[in-house]
Amino acid sequence: MKTFLLATALAFMPIAAAQAAPADVATAVSAPGRPADAIALDAGRRPAEVLAFGGLRRGDSALDLFTGSGYFAEILGRAVGPRGHVVAWEPANFVNERSRAGLEAIHQRTPNFSWFATPNNALALPAAAFDFVVINLNYHDTYWESARYRFAHMDPEAFLRTVFQSVKPGGTILVIDHVANPGRDTRAEVEANHRILPATARADFERAGFVFDGESDMLRNPQDDHSKNVFDPSIRGRTDRFVYRFRRPR
User: Fold this and answer.
1) How far apart (Å, rounded) are the C-alpha atoms in residues 134 and 246?
2) What CATH number is attached to the domain comprising 123?
3) Series of mean pLDDT values for 10-residue runs along the chain (250 residues)
């Protein structure tokens, strides 16, 4: 199957209307055709509520960073409608035959979706291209590195500079991540548990130029003591998560 590259996607990306209606995310989530594995995640991720909080609108040009299986990207593509478009980025070292096939299948179901891959520390994005950006459960990975998984050392500040310039003035970025315990170096905590302090994430985004625009406790879980790795079967899928909304100033 053909891989739809970023340049191709942007060439056909429409400009969202300034006063577009809110996206009907609930309908996008319930639409037929989504994989069973994705549907099984809905209860823990609450995508309709999360994207409504983010302010997604019909016709938006959206970006899904660290897309993984394309879970959010497919919902975004359906929700923004045919006048909108969704571009997804995945680190190239995470792309294999199975994930490539899954992302290409999303394009077949949702033609306004496209994706691209680069080395994890070599993300490049066009300027002022996106109305809405989401990073779901992966911002902490900008502090991670792994020889085993061929995941190179990243500079979170450089990553956010790239992301910031790609967001349209007034555009939104939605950040969801696993809450960490305080008291440990960020990179050490990410290596051990794949968690990050909400205050660290907020400071990083504000330092990059984004303005904090609100938070939601809809994914908080007081039963998570933050001491376990997020892949531990006893807490996986039910971790305590912060949901932050930021905007690029106009």
Assistant:
1) 10
2) 3.40.50.150
3) 46 50 94 95 97 97 97 97 97 94 96 97 97 98 95 97 98 98 95 98 98 98 97 97 98
Strand order in the sheet with 61-65: 113-118, 85-91, 61-65, 130-136, 167-178, 241-247, 211-216
DSSP code, position 141: G
Count up the domains in the chain and report the number.
1
Task: Supply the DSSP string of 108-131, one letter for each residue.
Answer: HH-TTEEEEEE-TT-----TT-EE
Report pLDDT for 121. Answer: 96
Residue 210 in any domain: the answer is yes
Q: Do residues 16 and 85 make contact, with C-beta atoms less than 8 angstroms apart? A: no
Q: What b/e readout covers 187-219, taking b as 16+ CB neighbours within 10 angstroms?
A: eebbeebbbbbbebbbebbeebebeeeeebeeb
Q: How far apart are CA 224 and CA 45, in angstroms?
A: 15
| Residue 35 falls inside a structural domain | yes
Q: Could you give phi then psi for residue 76, rounded to 5 degrees?
A: -60, -45
